[in-house]
Design goal:
Elements lengths: L9 E3 L2 E3 L4 E5 L6 E6 L3 H17 L7 H17 L1 H12 L3 H25 L3 E3 L4 H6 L4 E8 L2 E5 L5 H14 L3 E5 L10 H9 L6 E3 L6 H8 L5 E5 L2 H11 L5 E5 L5 E4 L7 H9 L12 E5 L3 H14 L18 H16 L3 E4 L16 E4 L6 H4 L6 E7 L2 H9 L3 E2 L2 E4 L3 H9 L7 E2 L13 E2 L2 E2 L4 H6 L2 E8 L4
Parallel strand pairs: 7-8, 7-10, 8-9, 10-11, 12-13, 12-18, 13-16, 15-16, 18-19
Antiparallel strand pairs: 1-2, 3-4, 5-6, 6-22, 11-21, 14-15, 17-20
Helix pairs in contact: 1-8, 2-4, 2-7, 3-4, 4-6, 10-11
């Protein structure tokens, strides 16, 4: 194993904390222990909350001019940049991600996105005139009506296992730029890469209490964060089931809740774009083994081309290299756990019971006595009611469905409790865009894709509430105050 991050202490209000019961982080590629991590004691998580409250209420960070906050956060990102090798090695070891994905899609893209979020925050107005009709201003003797965007307060950021580093940046940078205090709690499955944020905060000179990083093997700490009255907001990325639980836990104190949850996205190929299905199929599972909430795991193609498509995507999946994440030739690593692999096996079995056919894969690949590998799988699915077409799987399984016409394709795509992302491919970009506009989903890629600080992500329906990235992702961490100013008479 390459040299991974060795400082496994929690970071609370400027202090390095140990003393909690240790838990093992497992390498999903070979089931070996990556490290024993001391869990943050629950009283220390409570202290993190109280210190975050104290720091916010004191104004030590929220009252700092935005340009100065930006300088501190840029220094934090510069520190992370110096940790490239151990950080990437840690992501490979704890998450089982191929090195190329960990380095490019998480580390490099994450830092670029974070720097863009700082620039975006500085480019938009956080206090602006409110458009009030002149007649109202005269009658009310109001000289000025202002809309001011202020920080929410104390934010609990709870991140998933599949992209722990970049998801942390996606929450921390806009929340901190807005002047909030933040407590980061990563997934127990991949906590090590997130502990680096404590060292980065210290190196950058972030005031104590403004950022804390806590880890645990269970969920008691997360529950404290989502119920504590001193926490003003919970930002969570993960499953829809856990998102529902967080909403219920946050309800008694009426916390603001931002949720990016599950997905069952569709990729629609118009008649003149069927030749592009191989690339689209590979993108669904490449790098993440399908463990991505935005993965377009339903492929919708014209019925008359379905057999051709099944052959093309099956050939593509057969050519993907399943292997050890550290091997440069690997394109598909393991799933995160035995539980997740078992879910893939069960969904394939239930899909077949309901009429689907396994065209490629569907089993554990040979040659891997250890590790949670599952073969890239193509299912010929008869209709959208099949379990493989309705349920989020989080594994390397693609369902191929046929549609009669464009109206039928839109109907199938929208026939889902989720609405996180989608894709439309067509030689006529205008026609493809017309289809995209009809999809009930938070983002649609038409013939291309974009991951940017300036472009929002988030879902409709049971895919979540609110947005991350873009101006809306900044506003998510702000309250709106109306200021009415007039002369005393």
């Amino acid at each position: 194993m390459e040299n991974i991050l060795t400082d496994h202490r929690s970071y609370i209000a400027g202090d390095r904390v140990t003393g909690g019961e240790a838990f093992a982080v497992e390498n999903p590629a070979d089931e070996s222990p990556v490290a024993e991590i001391p869990a943050t004691p629950l009283p220390e998580i409570d202290r993190a909350i109280r210190e975050a409250r104290r720091a916010f209420d004191s104004g030590v960070w929220s009252d700092t001019p935005a340009g100065e906050r930006a300088a501190v956060l840029r220094a934090l990102l510069s520190y992370l940049e110096t940790m490239r090798e151990p950080l990437v090695a840690t992501m490979v070891a704890e998450a089982g991600q191929p090195r190329m994905f960990a380095e490019r899609s998480q580390f490099l893209s994450g830092l670029a996105m974070a720097r863009g979020m700082i620039d975006l925050y500085l480019s938009i107005s956080h206090e602006e005139p409110n458009p009030v009709p002149v007649g109202e201003l005269v009658r009310g003797r109001v000289a000025l009506s202002l809309r001011r965007h202020e920080p929410v307060g104390v934010v609990a950021a709870i991140t998933p296992y599949n992209a722990a580093f970049i998801m942390a940046l996606q929450k921390l940078v806009p929340a901190l730029m807005a002047g909030n205090s933040v407590i980061l709690r990563p997934s127990p499955l991949t906590p090590i890469s997130s502990l680096v944020f404590g060292a980065a905060a210290e190196a950058a000179g972030l005031p104590p209490g403004v950022l804390s990083v806590v880890v645990e093997s269970g969920s008691a700490g997360a529950e404290l964060l989502t119920t504590h009255p001193a926490v003003d907001m919970v930002s969570f990325t993960g499953s829809t089931a856990v998102g529902r639980t967080i909403m219920a836990q946050a309800a008694p104190t009426l916390k603001r809740v931002a949720l990016e949850l599950g997905g069952k996205s569709a990729q629609i190929y118009l008649d003149d774009a069927v030749g592009k299905v191989a690339a689209g199929a590979a993108a669904v599972i490449g790098g993440t083994a399908g463990q991505a909430c935005v993965a377009a795991t339903r492929m919708l193609v014209p019925r008359e081309h379905k057999d051709e498509v099944l052959e093309l995507v099956s050939r593509t999946y057969a050519g993907l290299v399943v292997g050890a994440p550290a091997d440069p030739s690997t394109t598909i690593g393991p799933l995160i756990s035995a539980t997740q692999r078992q879910r893939c096996e069960e969904i394939v079995e239930r899909a077949v019971d309901k009429g689907a056919t396994v065209v490629q894969g569907g089993v554990r690949p040979s040659g891997f006595p250890r590790g949670y590998y599952f073969a890239p799988t193509v299912l010929d699915v008869p209709d959208n009611g099949n379990p493989a077409a309705q349920e989020e799987i989080f594994g390397p399984i693609l369902s191929v469905l046929g549609y009669r016409d464009i109206d039928d394709a839109v109907r199938i795509a929208n026939d889902s409790p989720y609405g996180l992302s989608g894709q439309v491919y067509g030689g006529d970009a205008a026609a493809a865009t017309a289809v995209a506009r009809r999809l009930r989903t938070g983002a649609v890629n038409v013939n291309t894709a974009l991951f940017s600080a300036y472009a929002p992500s988030g879902g409709y329906k049971q895919s979540g509430l609110g947005r991350e990235r873009g101006p809306d992702g900044i506003r998510a961490f702000q309250e709106v105050k109306h200021l009415v100013i007039g002369e005393l008479r």
